[in-house]
Design a protein that fits this description.
By secondary structure, the chain is mainly α. The protein has one domain. The protein has eleven helices and two strands, in the order αααααββαααααα. It has helices at 17-20, 23-39, 43-60, 64-70, 75-88, 105-131, 134-144, 155-185, 195-201, 203-226, 245-266; strands spanning 94-98, 101-104. Strands 1-2 form a two-stranded antiparallel ribbon. α2 (23-39) crosses α7 (134-144). The longest helix has 31 residues, at 155-185. The two termini are 37 Å apart.
């Protein structure tokens, strides 16, 4: 897996309906999507969720190749989860029994649905960052968490930290790729040997990476201080968030799908 396959935190500028939606709408829609995805139980409900995801990707006009490439880093986790569910899910229809390992029909279905759920969950959350700029994502998070200010929760600071963390993921990945290329040109080998040897080979990579990350953090702090940044107090925004008719329609559609999936899952579909 190449580092360029990690696309979390990247933003694809566009003029689609998904890009134009209020960031709060997209955040709430993602939460509803996740809840509905966990409510899905069988083929019919998972098919509905897949159609919803496919429709969202098609409307957003984000390249499908970029979404698939971004899911490569979690492929190992999905496969490992599938193996655990395959061998440790009890059932009545035994297919294969090898020593203490037993594969049942229920385990096969559980492993399949678990992999589908993980991949669809990752794709749906990636679509949020692909279609929402870090600034709008910060404003949306801060607006949704605004009631927490009454109990003295630093809402603005939390939103800013989350958006900066997402924004710097692609930057750190690019920096890591440059350092690895430079060390490979000097004879470093990151791919041969056992697991322990590979881990030791990463130490010369981590030191300059941490130095670069701290340097960028210091530069960002100095830049924010030079612009008289003092948190959210008295801060104005170039673009004021305001719900429009399309936002209410999208939320109603997602909520209707979630309710429908919950009802179908309750009757065993």
């Amino acid at each position: 897996m190449a580092l360029k396959d990690i696309t979390l935190g990247q933003y694809f500028p566009g003029n689609s309906l998904v890009h134009k939606l209020d960031p709060r709408t997209k955040l709430i829609a993602v939460v509803i999507y996740i809840v509905a995805l966990f409510l899905a139980k069988w083929f019919v409900t998972y098919a509905i969720m897949f159609c919803l995801l496919a429709l969202s990707i098609a409307v957003s006009k984000v390249p499908v190749r970029s979404i698939l490439r971004g899911m490569k880093p979690v492929l190992f986790i999905a496969i490992f989860t599938a193996i655990l569910n395959l061998f440790y899910t009890p059932g009545t229809h035994v297919l294969v029994k090898i020593w203490v390992l037993t594969i049942t029909m229920e385990g096969v279905f559980q492993a399949f649905f678990m992999v589908v759920r993980i991949m669809m969950l990752i794709a749906g959350t990636f679509l949020l960052t692909y279609t929402t700029s870090p600034i709008l994502l910060t404003d949306g998070l801060e607006s949704l968490m605004n009631p927490l200010k009454k109990i003295r929760v630093p809402v603005h600071e939390l939103s800013m930290m989350m958006s900066i963390a997402l924004r710097f993921i692609p930057t750190l990945i690019e920096e890591t790729d440059k350092i690895m290329s430079a060390q490979r040109a000097r004879g470093a080998d990151f791919e041969s040997g056992n697991l322990i040897q590979r881990a030791k080979a990463l130490i010369p990579l981590l030191v300059p990476l941490f130095i670069s990350a701290f340097r960028r953090a210091d530069e960002l702090a100095v830049a924010m201080e030079c612009r008289c940044y003092h948190g959210g107090e008295g801060r104005t925004r170039l673009r004021q968030l305001k719900y429009q008719a399309r936002d209410y329609m999208v939320l109603a559609f997602f909520l209707a799908v979630a309710v429908g999936v919950g009802v179908l899952a309750h009757i065993g579909l």
